[in-house]
Amino acid sequence: MHSVKEKLSNVASTTKEHAKISKAKVDEKAENVRARTKEEKKLVTERRKAKEAEAKMELHQDKAEHKAEKLDARHNRVIHGHGHNDTAKGHNTQGHGLHGHHTTTAGSKLPATTATHPAAGHTTGSKYL
């Protein structure tokens, strides 16, 4: 989900960048009409290029922020127990790796591993072995 959010945010930032570049070009044309000498027209062109560069710089900054938000969201998800291995709570939430064993933390009264297999404790004559 965070990847989708990042992509949508990047699209919005790219749209802003294109709008700023278009505005800079329109401003350049309007200022070129008022400019009388070649030097003034060169200055107008340089201003447009500076505005375009600023818009591109802001786009890259926004993309970096979006990537950081995505990574922060992933990091927070892992820390708060939604990740692959939640050792702070004493169990593996990934669904594989320990295969039938439940690890506990050091302060627990249970041994380090206990069998969690459904057949543990059943007699051999059990119907549901």
UniProtKB/TrEMBL annotation:
Gene Ontology biological process terms from the UniProt entry: embryo development ending in seed dormancy
Coiled coil residues, start to end: none
Low complexity bias (residue ranges): 103-129
Top-level taxon: Eukaryota
Region named Disordered: 1-68, 80-129
Protein name in the entry: Uncharacterized protein
PANTHER family referenced in this protein's UniProt entry, alphabetically: LATE EMBRYOGENESIS ABUNDANT PROTEIN 6, LATE EMBRYOGENESIS ABUNDANT PROTEIN 6-RELATED
Biased composition annotated in UniProt, kind: Basic and acidic residues: 15-68
Family: Belongs to the LEA type 1 family.
